[in-house]
Design goal:
alpha+beta, CBS-domain
Length: about 140
Amino acid sequence: MFVSDILKSKDSDVVTTGPDETVGATAGLMNGRRIGAVVVVDVDGAVIGIISERDVICGIATKGDGVLNTPVRALMTADVVACTASETIAGIMKTMTAHRFRHMPVIEDGVLRGMISIGDVVKHRLEETEMEAQALRDYVFAAR
């Protein structure tokens, strides 16, 4: 399976924020949309970072609740690890595990095309495993 398979089953809307938006407003956006990360884009829509709920929690823990009034750029991860739609699910799982993050933007030709989470990856791997198991059951019963 490929990242494109995950994107087909998801809403194509990717939640973004600007680097000058406050951390508090972005945390509210994540809470309201029930998501764990937001892609940070510049005025031209280019990806310049990502901020996750983990970033917000670490910011509060190290800087206090006043961090909620600071701009997103203060907490965002600027070195974004992204993938393309043609990458395999197995490859994405390895990357997410190696880098210890749960959200990955999908970028094609410099354009943000989607966002996948570890939950999306696990869901699709489970579906793939179930299809394989069903194919094996069908094969065994057909051979009788």
